[in-house]
Amino acid sequence: MAEENAGESTAADKAPGTDDGSHSGSLASYTIGLAFALLLTGASFLVSQTNLLWSPGVPAGLAVLAIAQMGVHLVFFLHISTGPDNTNNVLALAFGVLIVTLIVAGSLWIMANLNANMIPASAVMEMLR
Amino acid sequence: MSAHSGTAELPGLGTTLARGGGGPAPVRIVVAYGFWIFLLSDIIMFSALFASYAVLSGQTNGGPSGHDLFELRHVGIETLCLLFSSYTCGLGLLAVARRRMSGFYLCFALTFALGATFLGLELSEFVGLVARGAGPSRSAFLSAFFSLVGLHGLHVTAGLLWLSFMVAQIAVRGPRDFVRRRLLCFSLFWHALDIIWVALLTLVYLMGAR
Which tens digit of pLDDT belongs to each residue from A89-117? Predict the structure, then answer.
């Protein structure tokens, strides 16, 4: 069957730009990724549900674990790597991270600032009553 | 680079030669790059909802807060469903690459089942919340919660539909190159949903339930 053999021809049979049938993932990388993801998820639940961490530090701990897990997903599942085929992907990712940081941190900053400069909430509540 | 690439089987061909003088990059690389740009724009859209949730998460208007509402055991099972569905999705792609079609169908059936389980759990959570009077109109916190988590749920729904279409395409057209490129895009989408869920789990559920 021609379809069955579509990806098995050698590189020499292909015109430039056609697929070579290779895939960047492997069973090992998916399995390692899953193990890391499960470990980090478990750690997140543990940190949030117990007093293992100093309690004011828990949000920071959770944020670190979440960012680590996102990194694991990017590397082991999405196969974002430092390889030459991936330069554009990494640059786009960096730009995306910049925009996301600006939106989230900027919104929080602006809203906290507005909140701090507002009439105290209790006074507003008095006015509303 | 080009001097090194000349040592490959034939100059100008193959993935290692995709830069500089080596000719155009393989279609697979270009397609994945374009889809990656789409995924990043999707993540940026989510970031706006994350920002609004982070701002509004304390505004419960006297209603229930996350601490009263969230059941972490439930959320933990949802997380496991998504993680394992990502794993089986990746295994499915490997099976296609090795032309093991029954393995592919098994993996994607598992992926679908796990995704559907996640969706069912999320829907039951939503229904339970609305039944308790904690629907999206109750407070700004719950509006932000439902739009953020609901949008992720919509993405999972779209992913399940896409998954079904991809299985049908593989069944009808066979594992040809263009079908496999679509399959690669689907897997990127499915894994990206996991990344969004990690952020959601941490910000909404784990921090909210404390």
Answer: 999 999 999 999 999 999 999 999 998 88
pLDDT tens digits along B110-148? 999 999 999 999 999 999 999 998 989 999 999 999 999
Query: Using the beta-carbon criterion (under 8 Å), do A66 and B12 form an inter-chain contact?
Result: no
Give CA–CA dist A53/A100, Å, rounded: 28
Among the listed residues B3, B4, B2, B22, the one whose alpha carbon sits nearest the alpha carbon of residue B13: B22
What is the pTM for the complete model shown? Answer: 0.84
- Please give the radius of gyration of chain B, using alpha carbons only, rounded to the nearest integer: 21
List b or e across B97-125, with b for residues whose CB sees 16 or more CB atoms inside 10 angstroms.
bebeeeebeebbebbbebbbbbbeebeeb
Any chain B CB within 8 A of the CB of A72? no
DSSP state of A79: -
| Residue at token pair 């697979």 | B28
Does any CB of chain B come closer than 8 Å to the CB of residue A7?
yes
Report DSSP letters for B2-71, one per residue: HHHHTTSSSTT-SGGG-SGGG-SPPHHHHHHHHHHHHHHHHHHHHHHHHHHHHHHTT--TTS--HHHH--
Closest CA to A26 of B107, B90, B101: B90
- Name the amino acid, one letter, at A38: L
**Closest Cβ–Cβ partner in B22, B27, B51 for A103:** B51
